[in-house]
Amino acid sequence: xxxxxSARSNSVFLTELQVADMIxxxxxxxxxxxxxxxxxxxxxxxxxxxxxxDDVNVWVARQRVSRTSR
Length: 70
Fold this sequence. Notes:
Radius of gyration: 14 Å
Number of helices: 4
Number of strands: 3
Strand content: 5-15%
Largest sheet: 3 strands, antiparallel
Shape: globular
Mean pLDDT: 90
Low-confidence stretches: none
Order of helices and strands: HEHHEEH
Structural class: alpha+beta
Oligomer: single chain
């Protein structure tokens, strides 16, 4: 069985601004997505909001589409 504590200690956490830059969106859009639940999962450390790089990459991969019509 995997040791989750050691896996978590290797996580890279990003700020809201870093995520916004990474996916070419404004920080305000990232804030709105956090309120509506449409953006990547996030963590709260006290008053600080941080995004796991792994979570952001998973979210980005799920946004991939092959055409605009359904």
